[in-house]
Amino acid sequence: MSLPLPPAPDYDGAHLRHVLPSACAALGLEGFANRLDIPPCSIAVVIMVDGLGDHNLAAHTGHARFLASAWRRAAQGRVLDCGAPATTSASLTSLGTGKAPGEHGMLGYDLLAPELGRVVNMLGGWDDDVDPRSWQRHPSVLQQAVDAGARVLTASRSQFRDSALTTAALSGGEFLGADRIESRFRAAQEWIMDRRTAKGGVRRGPAPAQLVYLYVDELDKTGHHAGVDSVMWRSMLENLDEAARRLCSALTERYGDEVAVLLTADHGMLDIAEQDLVDIAECDDLLRGVAHTGGDPRMMYLYAEAEQDPVELAARWRAEFGDVAWVLTRDKAIAAGWFGAVEERVLGRLGDVIIAAHAPIAIFDTARTGVGIMSMVGMHGSLTEVERKIPLLELTGRGFTG
């Protein structure tokens, strides 16, 4: 029996897309709204932890005592939605632009580029003929902060300095690359301290606002490889927890209430057993009338051939997967608000039929992707609570203002 459709992500309320604009507003920059009640500050640090969903943190608080202390306090811990699909390219672009996926168009891991007639990757394997600045046309919040007078830093892995995703969604300001969690946090701390005297120190005029975006992808990588209930994942969480504790201690000791440190995530993750990995590469009846597959293993997109009726295609897939997934046409998913307002120019990137898993399964088309992707353990992409709910923590103890 099919489950009722999940509610749409709360794009106008408690949503990831409001984190950076709210931090900018808290810094006193003009043109931004503080929708998430971040406390006033002159230094704002936004830590983005790839793959640390609210349910994942709740299940491992013993390995994240510092983060858990904020998570347990209503004044410091909130729960946000990420968008659909619950995947890195979509969520980081919503964070970076302040837009819903239907506006920015980064609608999954693999997407059909209608103008090219083929599926392209949105994360680490952008095709040379896909221009990030024309594919995603909205300005980044980081660049808007620079234009508003803030000093802005991205602290991330070195390899992401000039990546297509950075160019498309997270450009603006300075970039410091470091390939270990603790090194990234230390680089961010030193950048702030090199540019700001301690509270009560002598300085001329008001200090420029400082905004730091600090990206941590180790938990996501470890979760994909070993699972979110693995010893390796818990060890990585402990490393993150200690790095965050040290950063907050140093900044609050030096700057007091001038600083706000926020931590959020782009999606949650669940482990999928090997026997629940489904490969449809040789399912001729299911693939009849399908020109391309795309999306994510837990939110697959089917791009129909011109003569194929999407309603009939959806019915065929629903007969196979209706007990374990929400199967609906693109039009119904848009009407349900899954992607927010959808711009006409990105409409063709969405599948004509969408299969969003609600049971712990994942669906692959290895004829397109190869079999290597099926080695993943931890996965994400759909609209279950585990995947869509993410934390927003204020880590200095000041708490949210609302």
UniProtKB/TrEMBL annotation:
Pfam families: Phosphodiest. InterPro entries: Alkaline_phosphatase_core_sf (IPR017850), Phosphodiest/P_Trfase (IPR002591). This is Alkaline phosphatase family protein. It comes from Nesterenkonia rhizosphaerae. The lineage of its organism: Bacteria, Bacillati, Actinomycetota, Actinomycetes, Micrococcales.
